Amino acid sequence: MNIRGSICALVTPFAADGALDLLAFGRLLDYQLAGGTQALVVAGSTGEAHMLEHDEFDRLLAFAVEHVAGRVPVIAGTGEAGTAKTVALTRRARVLGADAALVVTPYYVRPTQEGLRRHFLEVAEHGGLPVLLYNVPSRTGCDLLPETVAQLREHAAIIGIKEARADRERISALAELVRADFVYLSGDDGSAGEAMLAGAAGTISVVANLAPQAFRALCDAAVAGDHAATARCHAILEPLVEALNCAPNPIAVKAGLPLLGLGLALPRLPLVELNDGPDRARLHQALSSLASLATAAG
Questions:
Q1: For labelling alongside 104, which of 141, 184, 205, 264 has CA 20 to 30 A away?
Q2: For residue range 242-292, what is the model confidence (pLDDT) as tens digits?
Q3: Rg of the chain over all Cα atoms, to the nearest angstrom
């Protein structure tokens, strides 16, 4: 399975009454495909997975699989705090047609490295899908260490890791674990170029929701090892990446949806919509500047 390059961690659009907005989701999927996105993550943390009901997860994932129709891999977010629940949701994602599972480290419970090792092996052994490990300590309260990753990659069903830690030591350590059957994917937009130049095969991105074409250009340049082109692409995207850091994800990225005709800005509680003010204005300016650059280039 070729999961690499520019990968979008999709938001989940909601209608004004709080229901899933599958029409808007379809527009978002088309926008990603037209912009060159190479794989899609459905119901990850950016997709507000933990605010979705079971039937909504089913409808969202089934819709994406049918709409995409095999053009790019569809990866389902199936990580839960408990191992049995994670295995069950991964099996459900397989039934619904997902190509792989993105499995975040169990959140809040703070397992040991041995607990993490055994958790992921259970999911790999019994979940029925290829597994991408996902490490994001700032959200989960635990850190999947590179030495544990090195053990886990020996399982044939564990095909890679999304690593959201952006420090150079971690980037370097994970780059050393790359091999033909195990990919390292960046999970941090701000350091994505650096990670890919160091050996990451791609990036699972939030900013790609709003700028798929520009993010694909960054990935192409960095994976090819073109430092100068990577720097230029990073400079173009940096104002938008920084603008999205004004609030917990996905509050800010969803605020950009209406500007692109991709849906409403509404997250679900306990997340709230981005207020009018400097942060929203900065986001609007970053998107306007990107659009102007795209027009000039076209």
A1: 264
A2: 999 999 999 999 999 999 999 999 999 999 999 999 999 999 999 999 988
A3: 18
**Two structure tokens written together for 138:** 């700032």
Q: What is the pLDDT of residues 184-205, one digit of tens each?
A: 999 999 999 999 999 999 999 9
Q: Is 134 a catalytic residue?
A: yes
Task: Please report, for residues 114, 125, 185, the alpha-carbon distance to residue 6 in angstroms, rounded to integers and kept in the order given.
Answer: 32, 28, 10
Is the distance from CB of 290 to CB of 240 less than 8 angstroms? yes
Question: Which among 220, 196, 217, 215 is positioned nearest to 205, based on CA atoms?
Answer: 215
Band of residue 149 on the pLDDT scale cut at 50, 70, 90? very high
Q: Which of 114, 77, 122, 84 is nearest to 98 (CA)?
A: 77
User: For the chain, what's the residue count?
Assistant: 298
| Closest among 135, 114, 109, 126 to 45, alpha carbons compared | 135
- Residues 213 and 9: their CA atoms lie apart, in Å, by 15
Query: How far, rounded to the nearest angstrom, does the alpha carbon of residue 203 sit from its chain's CA centroid?
Result: 8
Measured between alpha carbons, how far is 297 from 53 in angstroms, rounded to an integer? 43
**Cα–Cα distance measured from residue 64 to residue 20, given in angstroms and rounded to the nearest whole number:** 13
DSSP output for 159-210: EEEEE----HHHHHHHHTT-BTTBEEEE--GGGHHHHHHHT--EEEESGGGT
Integer angstrom CA distances of residue 18 from 15, 46, 245, 253: 5, 17, 24, 17
Residues 194/113/103/220 CA torsion (nearest 10 deg): 10
217-240: b (≥16 Cβ within 10 Å) or e: bbbbbbbeeeeebbeebbebbebb
The Cα–Cα gap between 72 and 60 comes to: 16
pTM: 0.96
Catalytic residue among 31, 107, 108, 162: 162
Locate tokens 């400079």: which residue? 235
